[in-house]
Amino acid sequence: MSEFQQKCSIIGRDRLAPDVFRLTLQAPKIAAEAQPGQFVMVRVIDGLDPLLRRPFSIHRSCADGSISLLFKVLGKGTAMLARRCVGDELDLVGPLGNGFDFSDERPVCLIGGGMGIAPLLFLAEQLHSTGRATEKDHILLGARTKDELTPLADEFSALGYTVQLATDDGSIGRKGFIPDLLGFVLPTVEQVYTCGPHLMMENVVRQCQQAEVHCQVSLETHMACGIGACLGCTVNGKRGLVRVCQQGPVFNADHLEWSLV
Amino acid sequence: MKEEAVLLEKNPEKKVEAREAVPCIMPDLRVQIGSLALRNPVMTASGTFGYAREFENLVNLDRLGGIIVKGISLHPKPGNPPPRIVETACGMLNAIGLENVGVDRFITGKMPYLRKLTTPVVVNILGDSVEEYSEIARKLDGAEGIAALEINISCPNVKKGGVAFGTVPEMAAKVTEAVRRSTTLPLIVKLSPNVTDIVVMARAVEDAGADAVSLINTLIGMSIDPITRRPRLANVIGGLSGPAIKPVALRMVWQVAQAVSLPVIGIGGITTAADALEFLLAGASAVQVGTANFYDPSAAESIVQGLTSYLQEQGEDCLVDIIGTLKTGTD
């Protein structure tokens, strides 16, 4: 496994919802190595403010050497990124971190909330293309509104998965919290993969632990370097602090001290 | 070399001839920090470059002037609870809390890799007492492949020891003397900017036997989230680094370079060759690239290249000739 620092041209920019964007970048070296669950560090501008790179899960990696990133405009960095255009170059470092372990246990459930859906599409595509997907797999996706969810849900459906949705406002799918749907699914799956807001993942992990179903979580934290040098992205593991960028971002949920994460 | 420079100065035409005659000559970037010889003046700062291996896929480590590894204590330290970093305008605050593997595991676990590099490795050391500093220095003195020690008397994150050593001249001198007695390795003392007069600190460690001083370490700062009304760092306060602190660092380097006869190593927000040049002109014999390693891993290597280009453009053969050539007043 190796990472690269690369200037990557933006070759696609889609606005999936008023504040949700998907950038597609020509990043052949990164795409060739990327595994679902890994991330890249993106410099949103060449200037010094904002100073630090932003970590983004790899949302999609294609054989044509492109990767996609999905993000919602939340702060200064994402606002600047949203203003970048097709043809612009972004400086990327990646692929970084440990991805999802998707070797054996099936069927699986992928449960994502909001922008946490980003790495799950890459995972779903990889499960599908390597013949690991089964009819008994479940995809559970949640977001605030229909706008944020529909374009993404369609892409999971296109792969042949059965997708269940929940939105905060009930504009599509069930009105409410996506982990509420997990109870029906858990008895039928061997492995859960989750990424999303903290409260959502905490709930998913608790349900999985009660049902004794393996659960892998993808964490997001602030980080300065993404390569294990700044020691800024640590969270509490069962056996002391762990670095999200190196030991994660995907963790076995049982290895984290969830109450302190 | 000096004589030749003088001759060329008096006879500008000859200088042009000389440059045309050997247009491809590479400028000499070598610098000397006491007895420590560097192939170029660009080092990576402690705490921003891990134990170097973290960068091996992104940086040609053998192109760097020197590598200063993460601060090492006598015993392993777990560091502070998260959150440990927060971005600020053109900078970042950190309160990592000196997390490190401890000197023994550093020697057995990290040195074998570092020894294979052609770049001098400087080990940053920190302790809670004078005795601890001495003991770490003794252990490292016996380990093969270490080019120098950098004494960290200035980290603001540890309640015990660190701050007092870095802000009280007598304490800084005491640590320097003790480490001096424990090793024959070249000694660099890294100074804190969180003092009233950094020149006093520099003079104190010079008198105590330091071979060089490096400055500045981080400036103590703070950031608050108005919504939660909580500090953004679990440790409440942390060290500010990055381009935001460069003007302060440059001023201090300039003041210290004038006041002491030791080589000075400039640190603080250096991202580009132009930044490095500012420090060299102000009197630094070398520089350390810190926070830039995080947001641009290629920064240190690019600076080496940029210094070469600058010297070629300026018609300078040797980097040492531009050190401290700041023009002030009516120069």
TrEMBL record, chain A:
Pathway where this protein functions: Pyrimidine metabolism; UMP biosynthesis via de novo pathway; orotate from (S)-dihydroorotate (NAD(+) route): step 1/1
Binding sites annotated in the UniProt record for [2Fe-2S] cluster: C225, C230, C233, C245
Domain of life from the UniProt record: Bacteria
Keywords recorded for this protein, A-Z: 2Fe-2S, Electron transport, FAD, Flavoprotein, Iron, Iron-sulfur, Metal-binding, Pyrimidine biosynthesis, Transport
GO BP terms, alphabetized: 'de novo' UMP biosynthetic process
UniProt keyword Flavoprotein present: yes
Cofactor: [2Fe-2S] cluster; FAD
A GO MF term: oxidoreductase activity
Cofactor binding annotation: Binds 1 [2Fe-2S] cluster per subunit.
Ranges for domain FAD-binding FR-type: 3-102
InterPro entries: Cyt_c3_hydrogenase_gsu (IPR012165), Dihydroorotate_DH_ele_sf (IPR037117), Dihydroorotate_DH_Fe-S-bd (IPR019480), Dihydroorotate_DHASE_ETsu (IPR023455), FAD-bd_8 (IPR013112), FAD-bd_FR_type (IPR017927), FNR_nucleotide-bd (IPR039261), PyrK_electron_transfer (IPR050353)
Binding-site positions, FAD: R54, P55, F56, S57, G77, T78
Gene3D superfamilies: Dihydroorotate dehydrogenase, electron transfer subunit, Nucleotide-binding domain of ferredoxin-NADP reductase (FNR) module, Translation factors
Function comment: Responsible for channeling the electrons from the oxidation of dihydroorotate from the FMN redox center in the PyrD type B subunit to the ultimate electron acceptor NAD(+).
Subunit structure: Heterotetramer of 2 PyrK and 2 PyrD type B subunits.
Similarity remark: Belongs to the PyrK family.
Full protein name: Dihydroorotate dehydrogenase B (NAD(+)), electron transfer subunit
Gene that produces this protein: pyrK
UniProtKB/TrEMBL annotation, chain B:
Domain Dihydroorotate dehydrogenase catalytic residues, every copy: 29-311
Recorded catalytic activity of this chain's protein: (S)-dihydroorotate + A = orotate + AH2
Major location category of this protein: cytoplasm
CDD domains: DHOD_1B_like
Localisation per UniProt entry: Cytoplasm
InterPro entries, per database record: Aldolase_TIM, DHO_dehydrogenase, DHOD_1B, Dihydroorotate_DH_1, Dihydroorotate_DH_1_2, Dihydroorotate_DH_cat, Dihydroorotate_DH_CS, Dihydroorotate_DH_I
EC annotation from Swiss-Prot or TrEMBL: 1.3.-.-
The organism's place on the tree of life at top rank: Bacteria
Pathway annotation from the record: Pyrimidine metabolism; UMP biosynthesis via de novo pathway
Keyword hit for Flavoprotein: yes
PROSITE patterns: DHODEHASE_1, DHODEHASE_2
One Pfam family cited in the UniProt record for this chain: DHO_dh
EC top class, as a word: oxidoreductase
Binding-site list for substrate: K70, N94, A95, I96, G97, L98, N152, N217, T218
Cofactor details (free text): Binds 1 FMN per subunit.
Catalytic site positions: C155 (nucleophile)
Keyword hit for Transferase: no
Function: Catalyzes the conversion of dihydroorotate to orotate.
Oligomeric form and interacting partners: Heterotetramer of 2 PyrK and 2 PyrD type B subunits.
PANTHER family assigned: DIHYDROOROTATE DEHYDROGENASE (FUMARATE) (PTHR48109:SF1), DIHYDROOROTATE DEHYDROGENASE (QUINONE), MITOCHONDRIAL-RELATED (PTHR48109)
Family label: Belongs to the dihydroorotate dehydrogenase family. Type 1 subfamily.
Official protein name in the record: Dihydroorotate dehydrogenase
Organism listed in the record: Candidatus Electrothrix aarhusensis
The gene coding this protein: pyrD
